[in-house]
Every structure is written in C-alpha cells, then in structure tokens.
Write a structure and sequence with these properties.
The protein is an alpha+beta fold and 226 residues long. Helices cover 28% and strands 18% of the residues.
Length: 226
C-alpha cells in the first residue's frame, strides 16, 4: 500500500502540462517586433555615427596641436638646462631653415640659437649635434627637433596670432622682443561647413607670461579663416 501511494503522489505529469502547471509556449519575435528593433537600431546609428566621427576628429585635432605643445615644452626645458637661447620657428618652404611668418602648418624646428640671430647658421642638415657644441665652441647653433609634417588633416591650418618665433632664454622665459613673441596659436579645420562653425571645434595653444604652453578650446573672439 505504501508503494502505491508513493507512485500516485510522485508520478509523471499529465500530458500537455509543464512544471508549475503552465502550458508550453513557442519563443520568438513577431514581424512587427522585429521591425521596431530595426527602426530603433537605425535611429541610434543616425544619432551615434556623427557624434563618433566628431570625437575622432576632436582627438586628431588635439593630437596635432599636442605636437607644438611638446616642441614648446622641449624648447623651454632645454633653454633652462643649457642656459642658452632656444627657439621654435616655422620652417621655410625648403624646410632647411626658419622663416618669419604666422603660418605654422608646414612644420617647425627647435634649435639652440647661441648668437641670437633667429636663424640656423648654415641650414638644418649642416647644423651640428647639440651634444658636441660645448667646451671651447660656444657659438654654433644646433638642432634639437624638426617637425616637418605636424598636421594630419588636409584642410587644417595652424597660425600664430603674431608673426614671429617662440624664443626662450636661459631662465625659461619667453623673449621680450615682440616680433618674436606669438603668444597664441590657432588650429582650425576646414572640414566644417563655414568659419563660424569651424571655431566651435578649433583648438588653441596659449603661452603664459612665464612661457609655459597650455592647450584649450578656441573662444568666441577667435576667428578661423580659409
């Protein structure tokens, strides 16, 4: 009798029932549900792709301007270390010496300017290694860095507010000569629709009174021109 009661109490479920007394149901999506998912995915793509592309461009702009920041920082630290005049100046079209211009898009050079004439004596290729100009020879210039293709975007322009060079003395301060003291640099990208739109995404490098460079977004008073 005990065995029969156990068999009745714990026997198999009746046909058509599942655990919990619920009937089984087929899983899946209806056509309307699938269309809703596709529409939502499409809307998210429309919203997200431009934002993603803008983020890529912003990072690229920042990386381009970071190169000039690094060069200015190098020039300042080397001027202090060597107790010498160190300049950052735009490259000429031949890319073998300095040129006094407000356009820095074509690159620049960092060099020790011992006679303070704002020119690499000779040319870049002929300038001697900076580690071999000390001792008896304290007059020769030497090149610390050459940045020939700093700007990656084809429609980008890098200009200084004032025409001139970045010049540091042995104290790490910028030169007091106004013709050599561009205190702001503006990087613009012509990929935007117009100049007013471009300034929203432009980047700026600013030299403080002590010569320290810093990067920031362009302000409303800045102007991009193409």
């Amino acid at each position: 009798m005990m065995g029969n009661r156990l068999a009745l109490g714990f026997g198999p479920h009746q046909a058509g029932q599942t655990f919990g007394g619920l009937r089984g149901a087929q899983a899946g999506f209806t056509l309307i549900e699938l269309m809703i998912v596709v529409i939502i995915a499409f809307l998210l793509m429309i919203i997200g792709v431009p934002s993603f592309l803008q983020t890529i461009r912003d990072n690229s702009m920042r990386a381009d301007l970071q190169k000039l920041w690094s060069s200015a920082s190098l020039a300042r630290s080397e001027a202090i270390k060597r107790n010498s005049n160190v300049l950052v100046c735009p490259l000429n079209s031949a890319q073998d010496n300095c040129v006094e211009t407000s356009v820095w898009t074509g690159g620049w050079v960092v060099f020790v300017d011992r006679n303070d004439n704002a020119t690499i004596d000779g040319n870049i290729d002929a300038a001697r290694d900076c580690e071999h100009i000390f001792g008896a020879d304290l007059t020769g210039d030497c090149v610390l860095q050459v940045e020939e293709r700093p700007i990656t975007g084809p429609g980008r322009t890098l200009t200084s507010v004032n025409v001139g060079f970045i010049a540091y003395n042995g104290l790490g301060s910028t030169s007091l000569r106004s013709s050599r003291l561009p205190n702001q640099f503006l990087l613009c990208d012509s990929a935007t629709e117009d100049a007013d739109e471009a300034i929203k995404y432009a980047r700026k490098l600013v030299l403080s009174g002590s010569g320290r460079p810093r990067m920031e977004k362009a302000g409303n008073t800045d102007t991009c021109s193409f």
